Amino acid sequence: MPDMYNSEGYETYSESNAFANGVEAQLPVEGSIPRGYIPFDIDNSTAGYDLAKATLTSPLDSTQVDLTRGKELYDIYCGICHGNKGKGQGKLVKREKILGIPSYDDAGRAINEGSTYHTIYYGKNAMGSHANQLNEEERWQVVSYVLKLKADLEN
């Protein structure tokens, strides 16, 4: 098998008529969606936040909500800033690495399912997006846990 020792090189892009310039791969078809990705149709804007707050509700029913799992995810991704009880007193706040994290029971914020999901998906102010770290179902589990923390703080 002499070809195994001296293999012939092929220039994939340059030999195909499918590539416009002969040296670059093609872009995906407009409107295509990557596997495992579910698009979120609400914009990353103040108007989008308000729309989510007014209209977005959890697709999970009471049998699908797992507060234990929500707590685990919250502790990993949220607790470092927001604190284990949702008072905005996480380790980074206590060490003065970041400031200005309000409590979940802050009346001025009046968070709900939609606003919390939107914030997890896109981030808000100094908080970055967690859309890449949590899939849709996990985000809703965290939302359920955040609302439980809010209810605990209000009582």
Describe the structure.
The chain has 155 residues and is mostly helical. It has a single domain (46-154), classed as Orthogonal Bundle (Cytochrome Bc1 Complex, Chain D, domain 2). Helices cover 40% and strands 0% of the residues. The protein is built from 7 helices and no strands. The chain has helices spanning 2-5, 46-55, 67-77, 79-82, 91-94, 113-122, 136-154. The model has no long low-confidence stretch (mean pLDDT 86).
Topology:
Layout (H helix, E strand, L loop, with lengths): L1 H4 L40 H10 L11 H11 L1 H4 L8 H4 L18 H10 L13 H19 L1
State the share of residues found in helices, binned by percent. 40-55%
What is the residue-mean pLDDT, rounded to a whole number? 86
Number of domains: 1
Largest sheet: none
Number of helices: 7
CATH topology-level fold name: Cytochrome Bc1 Complex, Chain D, domain 2
Order of helices and strands: HHHHHHH
CATH class annotation: Mainly Alpha
- Name the CATH homologous superfamily: Cytochrome c-like domain
What value does the Rg take, in angstroms? Answer: 23 Å
Low-pLDDT stretches: none
What structural category arises from helix and sheet content?
Answer: mainly alpha
Using the 3D structure, state the CATH architecture: Orthogonal Bundle
Q: Outline, from the CA principal axes? A: elongated
Q: What share of residues are in beta strands?
A: under 5%
DSSP E strands, number: 0
| Spatial separation of the terminal alpha carbons | 79 Å
